[in-house]
Specification:
The complex is a heterotrimer.
Chain A: E1 2-7, H1 11-20, E2 27-30, E3 47-48, H2 59-77, E4 82-83, E5 87-91, H3 94-110, E6 116-119, H4 120-126, E7 136-140, E8 144-146, H5 148-161, E9 165-167, E10 172-178, E11 181-186, E12 189-198, H6 204-209, E13 221-228, E14 239-242, E15 252-255, E16 261-264, E17 268-269, H7 279-292, E18 301-309, E19 318-323, E20 326-330, H8 336-353, H9 378-387, E21 394-396, E22 401-402, H10 403-410, H11 419-426, H12 439-450, E23 469-470
Parallel strand pairs in A: 1-2, 1-12, 2-9, 5-14, 12-20
Antiparallel strand pairs in A: 3-8, 4-8, 5-7, 6-7, 10-11, 11-12, 13-16, 13-17, 13-18, 15-16, 19-20, 21-22
Chain B: E1 2-5, E2 14-17, E3 23-24, H1 29-40, E4 43-44, E5 47-53, E6 59-64, E7 68-69, H2 73-80, E8 84-86, E9 94-96, E10 106-108
Parallel strand pairs in B: 5-8
Antiparallel strand pairs in B: 1-2, 2-3, 4-7, 5-6, 6-10, 9-10
Chain C: E1 2-7, H1 11-22, E2 28-31, E3 47-49, E4 58-59, H2 60-72, E5 77-79, E6 83-87, E7 92-97, E8 101-112, E9 116-118, H3 121-124, E10 134-136, H4 137-147, E11 149-150, E12 154-158, H5 162-173, E13 177-183, H6 192-199, E14 206-208, E15 210-216, E16 223-228, E17 241-244, E18 247-250, E19 254-256, H7 259-263, E20 288-290, H8 301-321, E21 329-333, E22 337-341, E23 344-345, E24 353-360, E25 367-373, E26 376-383, E27 392-397, H9 398-401, E28 407-414
Parallel strand pairs in C: 1-2, 1-8, 2-5, 8-20, 10-18, 12-13, 12-18, 13-14, 21-28
Antiparallel strand pairs in C: 3-4, 6-7, 7-8, 9-19, 15-16, 16-17, 21-23, 22-24, 24-27, 25-26, 25-28
The chains are: A alpha+beta, B alpha+beta, C alpha/beta.
């Protein structure tokens, strides 16, 4: 019997787990996939929004503004790549100018600090690559960029360090109330919990329906992106949005914390797990982005991807008690990433109202540091390699990631078990050759660490096999 | 008249050969020789790998020391599955002598030192 | 302080180091990131190397071995398992390795010989799902030939570059079914002989003017959709063919590995994507040379060797006799030519002939390669056939260059 069981280990589940690990509680997270951050968390715009989009008075407005402050605090404490670069919403038409006023108003009501409407010329002074057609912009200095999966990972690692258990490859198939607690059926047996948190992302409606009346449905919206080479990474220095519409926040052009340029997304209805890109979607992203920043060089593309947002056709998150001892953290669409730490905090508060004792642990540890060889000075590198020669061997040449960093990730509280898992932790394979060079080397390191043959190593999810079989038949069989 | 592209060297001459095997379009005598062989009894050098133990890698690259008849390629590949070399191996070491009585040996094409 | 540091121990670096030694340098260091010398040749186990240089047919590892043997007879120092992270314009080389540690070495001259890398799915934005099973041909080649693993059993190959063609044969020999080789251009990007001996020998269809327009499969590739393209390389709706396969190999081009080059402040040529070089392979930074695939992507290692020997000898000359000088001629790509290497020639520095490598931008039948300046034709060379997949080479005698001023244009005139 665990005190709290969390379903799903995306950034929302991880944030809730970290929050609860501050208290004297037993907490278990069940994750269907083989790693954290496997859904919406790993495929989004990687923006921490300032908070002028949500309607004043909504939960979303409050959690966005609070989340943006908390995210900044945690990213610093937990060594998560974060940069407060500010954002601009561009206006191209008179109607857009009105929208800027509305957003400014909302922002002021929501308590967003430092908002300012600036002229097109002023916007171009700050961002010289902006189009001549920009009439004005809403400047939000508190907006930031972040590594979304590393933020999730940092939350999950902190949770684990403070006693939380994460069970991977475990999918919830049923939930029953049984004498004041929950019997949770999974494909790997039954778990019992006093309280359950539903943080199942695009599948949060399915989980909700196991315990309560069907009253919402996740209608996923897919967004496609371009990730461009670092040579395009300083095309803009702030997050450049267009005016939002009913379809979403529109196509943005933004630097990433890893030094690349991200461009996207479009918005289109999709299946819950359909992260395919399409020629039409990518064309749309390119054409639309060029309205904001005409000079973006798409021949420098290194990757396309698509993410699915857990929209539920409403203007607010669905965070509430759905059944006794059962909390939904559902319909977490944008700004879900920004709000995540505040949602975690609020989830604990809701459980407290449900009768969960929240007694703080003195031993709670909030720290995380990882060595990034690339960012060290010559002198630091010299000392590090002398102390541990594995930091001298570069595995990923594009991102300058060393064997030592990969080995450290394999010894971390939430170790990777796939090539992309390694990538999310140390950036190996994120660069312009997209793992062409380091892929086989990472496979070799993983196989050795996990004590299996290379053909057992997966690219990302279970089932994503890389190598079929050995050449030359089965040894000794011929 | 048959048209064919020479594969003897990267130049890739476009050649023609008539019924009497007179070859034109070749830039060197080896082209004519190749064209005549190709039209009567085509042969290829087979390059592949065999298993190796005790080396930093698990495969040793090998080749047939001379071209073998094209129809033998598949059975040569099957033979390569049956052997395992042991490090150290030097370039030119014979791994299989006179493979399938073709007159060609299978030889190592890479130095692999013992680990 | 070394007289010469060579970055990269593949065919270019090996030939350059040997040539520099033969030209009199005695303190030379090769830095190689892999555990052995030889570079990409070690995984190119097929034959066809060395016909020009050694006048015999060798496999990749054998070709590399020849140079490793030559090198072992010199006093060139080698550091393997060592990666160069930075080259500064004042010729300091930052390198790191588990044995080497993190060190900064200085050199009187530097030869860049880092080779090239493969273009990926992201670079050409192929739409579709994102399953496992999409490999660059070179990565697949390493798995099959060095690690001994098959990346899949039913394969479609996009691009008809040489590595793709070679892998079509290689994977077929190892028991895979290669369903198709798909090329967006109306001609192959690889050598004709590879079309014959890698595709035709094994009845693998080559679809010219086609491309991959969709990838399906959630965890692993399950299908790829191939469509015909129009003259502007746009897919034509209604021409889709679906292949059931588990693997897509990409052989869609190679790009010089130019991170160190640009980091050193060296001028790059947008056409070759490598450094702009002079007749002796010297870059815009004096004393820093570039050769092999880092300068421009070659089809044949034999030419890499020759070019790199030129660079090695030139580095020695630079160290022993001082900088090269004299007037500069710019070599311009005229009609039908997509780039030339070198891009600049200093006639004073040309001994017998100045070799010019170039590629044409489409297939030409019987043609005349015309080298001209403002006054008219300086030299002409006849060819039966020219193709973008096959690099061309001409040699301009030093005498011809004596009276040339300003620029030289290399252009193609189709005769019929």
């Amino acid at each position: 019997m665990t005190d709290v069981l969390i379903i799903g280990c995306g950034v929302i589940g991880a944030a809730a787990a970290m929050e609860l690990s501050k208290y004297k509680l037993s907490v278990t997270v069940l994750e269907r996939e083989n790693d954290v951050a496997m859904g919406t968390t790993k495929a989004n715009s990687a923006i921490l929004h300032a908070g002028y989009d949500p309607h004043p008075g909504t939960l979303m407005a409050r959690l966005n503004v609070r989340g943006s402050e908390l995210a900044k605090y945690y990213c610093e404490k937990l060594d998560v790549p974060y940069r407060q670069c500010g954002s601009m919403v561009l206006a191209f038409t008179r109607a857009d100018l009105d929208t800027l006023d509305i957003l400014y108003d909302r922002g002021m009501k929501n308590g967003v600090k430092g908002l300012e409407i600036i002229s097109g010329d002023e916007a171009r002074k700050r961002e010289p690559e902006l189009a001549d057609t920009v009439l004005a912009a809403l400047w939000a200095p508190s907006a930031a960029i972040v590594s979304p999966w590393e933020m999730c990972l940092a939350f999950a690692e902190t949770a684990v360090k403070n006693g939380v258990k994460i069970e991977f490859n475990t999918e919830v198939t049923g939930l029953e109330r049984d004498g004041g607690c929950w019997r949770v059926t999974t494909d790997r047996g039954v778990r019992e919990a006093r309280y359950v948190i539903n943080a199942a992302g695009v599948d949060s409606d399915t989980i909700h329906d196991m315990v309560a009346e069907h009253d919402f449905e996740v209608k996923p919206s897919r967004g496609q992106y371009y990730l461009l080479d670092k040579s395009e990474g300083s095309r803009v220095n702030t997050v450049v949005f267009q005016c939002p519409s009913e379809k979403g926040k529109g196509v943005l052009v933004s630097p990433t914390v890893h030094g690349n340029l991200i461009v996207g997304p479009n918005a289109e209805p999709s299946d819950k797990h359909d992260t395919a890109t399409t020629a039409e979607g990518l064309d749309f992203v390119r054409e639309t982005a060029k309205l904001s920043v005409p000079g973006v060089d798409f021949s420098k593309s290194i990757r396309n991807f698509a993410g699915v947002r857990a929209n539920a056709g409403r203007d607010d998150f669905l965070i509430r008690k759905a059944a006794p001892g059962f909390i939904d953290l559902a319909a977490i669409c944008s700004p879900g990433l920004t709000s995540a730490p505040a949602i975690g905090e609020y989830a604990a508060e809701l459980l407290g109202r449900e009768g969960l004792e929240l007694e703080e642990k003195e031993s709670f540890e909030l720290s995380r540091r990882r060595i990034r060889f690339k960012e060290l000075t010559d002198e630091e590198r010299r000392k590090l390699v002398a102390r541990d020669p594995s930091y001298g061997r570069v595995i990923c040449r594009c991102e300058t990631v060393t064997e030592g960093e990969i080995l450290a990730a394999l010894r971390s509280p939430v170790p990777p078990c796939s090539v992309d898992g390694v990538k999310r932790r140390v950036n190996a394979g994120m660069g312009r050759c997209q793992g062409g060079f380091c892929g086989p080397r990472v496979v070799e390191l993983l196989a050795k660490d996990l004590g299996v043959t290379p053909d057992r190593i997966v690219q990302d999810r279970e089932g994503m096999w890389i190598l079929k079989e050995e050449t030359k038949g089965v040894p000794g069989s011929v | 008249m048959r048209e064919l592209v020479c594969i003897v060297c990267p130049r890739g001459c476009h050649m023609k050969a008539d019924e009497e095997l007179n070859v034109t379009g070749n830039a060197c005598p080896r082209g004519a020789q190749y064209a005549r062989a190709e039209l009567t009894h085509p042969t290829r050098v087979v390059t592949s790998t065999v298993r190796i133990t005790g080396a930093p890698y698990t495969r040793l690259p090998v080749k047939t020391s001379a071209p073998v008849p094209k129809e033998f390629i598949e059975s040569v590949m099957a033979e390569l599955c049956k052997v395992t070399a042991a490090a150290p191996v030097h370039v030119g070491d014979v791994i299989i002598k006179n493979i399938l009585s073709t007159g060609a040996d299978v030889v190592a094409t890479r130095e692999l030192v013992a680990k | 302080m070394y007289e010469l540091i060579v970055i990269g121990g593949g065919p270019a670096g090996l030939a350059a180091a040997c040539a520099a030694w033969d030209s009199g340098l005695r303190s030379i260091l090769i830095v190689e990131r892999d555990r052995e010398l030889g570079g990409i040749l070690n995984q190119c186990i097929h034959n066809g190397f060395g016909l020009t240089y050694f006048k015999e047919e060798l496999t990749g590892p054998e070709y590399a071995h020849r140079f490793v043997e030559l090198l072992s007879k010199t006093g060139v120092e080698v550091r393997t398992d060592t990666m160069v992270l930075e080259v500064t314009p004042d010729r300091k080389v930052h390198m790191t390795g588990p044995e080497t540690g993190y060190v900064v070495e200085e050199a009187k001259s530097i030869i860049l010989a880092m080779g090239c890398r493969e273009r990926t799915r992201g670079a050409i934005a192929i739409p579709g799902s994102r399953p496992a099973g999409i490999f660059t041909a070179g990565a697949a080649q390493r798995y099959v030939n060095v690690e001994g693993y098959m990346p899949g059993k039913r394969v479609v190959i996009l691009g008809s570059g040489d590595i793709g063609l070679i892998m079509a044969r290689r994977m077929t020999l190892e028991g895979a079914k290669v369903l198709a080789c798909v090329e967006v251009m109306p001609y192959s990007g690889g050598l004709t002989r590879n079309i014959v001996q890698c595709l035709e020998d094994y009845d693998i269809p080559l679809y010219l003017s086609h491309t991959v327009t969709d990838i399906k499969g959630r965890d692993r590739v399950e299908q790829v959709v191939v469509s015909r393209v129009d003259e502007r390389r746009r897919p034509i709706p209604g021409t889709e063919m679906v292949f059931d396969c588990d693997t897509l190999l990409l052989s869609v081009g190679l790009i010089p590995e130019n991170e160190l080059t640009s980091g050193a402040g060296i001028l790059l040529d947008p056409r070759t994507k490598g450094a702009v070089v002079y007749e002796n392979m010297e870059t815009s930074v004096p004393g820093v040379f570039a050769c092999g695939n880092v300068a421009h992507v070659h089809d044949l290692v034999d030419f890499v060797t020759q070019e790199s020997q030129r660079a090695g000898a030139a580095a020695a000359k630079y160290v022993l006799n001082g900088p090269a000088g004299g007037e500069t001629i710019d070599v311009i790509n005229g009609s039908g030519v997509s780039y030339t290497v070198p891009q600049r020639i200093r006639p004073e520095n040309v001994e017998k002939t100045a070799g010019i490598f170039f590629r044409v931008n489409r297939i030409f039948g019987k043609s005349r390669i015309v080298v001209s300046n403002r006054e008219g034709e300086v030299a002409g060379f006849n060819r039966e056939r020219l193709a973008p997949g096959e690099m061309e080479r001409i040699a301009l005698p030093a005498k011809l260059l004596e009276n040339v001023k300003g620029e030289l244009t290399v252009a193609i005139q189709e005769v019929e």
